[in-house]
Design brief:
Blueprint: H1 18-29, H2 32-42, E1 49-50, H3 52-58, H4 74-87, H5 92-100, H6 106-109, H7 171-179, H8 185-193, H9 197-200, H10 211-229, H11 238-252, E2 257-258
Antiparallel strand pairs: 1-2
Helix pairs in contact: 4-5, 4-10, 5-11, 7-8, 8-10
The structure holds fe (iii) ion (FE) (2 copies).
Length: about 260
């Protein structure tokens, strides 16, 4: 039977505690300094040259420990998200975004622990919002008592815009840098902020946003419907869909990407 909207991201119903354990580690270790270090390590994009299809195949065996809603593979989830956008008659760039939005999870294959790849993201370098999932675990993060990073604005200026805000490190930020020359701004917001639930769902951190962020928020929210609520859909049949998606990826990503 299909799930209702309230049944997704229902962390209280999650029986084994593995999501709790995940956020305990994520919130403890995602400090401002950790994020700077990961950016230095990865944003040179000098590890691999791979096409979107090669990457989809490569990631098929990753299971996302932060996700209480699905046990499907990454390829299934990519196609489910893209198909949900396609069925809703969304533009081709958005369907392409659905297909690739989680490819940054290749960070797992590069040796990163899951807490540095998946799960909700949040700004670092300023106060952690109580609206972040499992915010109680920030107690264990040294930045929570740092003289600058623990203040409301931290290292930022009011209204500076999210492009100037450092987010906790993971697949969203990483993939944004991989594809930022190839897709429209709306798509880049969906990719970069799709796990920033405290912003796009709970309305936190508006004080860091500029007008562009506020204008783009509706696109991030629109995308979230396909990302989250398609997880209950039937397993997609790649055989049937392959021709359509090869054509689509040829349009947006004709060359291998730098990872
Ligand atoms: Fe994701
Ligand atoms: Fe996703």
């Amino acid at each position: 039977m299909g799930k209702l909207a309230k049944d997704f991201r229902n962390y209280d119903a999650e029986p084994t505690g593995y999501v709790r354990a995940f956020y305990r580690k994520n919130h403890e270790h995602q400090t401002f300094d950790f994020v700077q270090q990961k950016k230095r390590e990865y944003l040179g994009l000098d590890r691999e040259r791979m096409t979107v299809w090669e990457m989809l195949d490569h990631l098929d065996d990753i299971v996302d420990e932060s996700d209480p809603d699905t046990t499907f593979t990454q390829t299934d989830h990519a196609l489910q998200t893209a198909e949900a956008a396609r069925q809703a008659n969304q533009p081709r760039w958005m369907i392409a975004t659905g297909l690739i939005h989680d490819l940054g999870k290749v960070l797992c294959k590069f040796g990163e622990p899951q807490w540095a790849v998946v799960g909700d993201t949040n700004p670092v370098g300023c106060r952690f919002s109580p609206k972040i999932v499992h915010a109680e675990f920030f107690e264990r993060n040294p930045d929570a008592v740092h003289p600058v990073y623990s203040t409301e604005l931290g290292v930022y200026e009011r209204g500076c815009g999210l492009q100037h805000v450092h987010m906790s490190w993971g697949h969203d930020e990483y993939l944004y840098h991989v594809v930022k020359e190839r897709l429209p701004l709306e798509a880049l917001y969906m990719i970069r902020y799709h796990s920033f639930y405290s912003w796009h769902r709970e309305g936190a951190y508006d004080y860091l946003c500029d007008d562009q962020d506020r204008a783009m928020l509706k696109w991030v929210r629109a995308f979230n419907r396909y990302d989250l609520y398609s997880k209950d859909d039937a397993k997609p049949d790649l055989g049937q869909l392959r021709a359509y998606y090869e054509d689509l990826t040829q349009e947006y990503f004709p060359e291998p990407l730098s990872w």
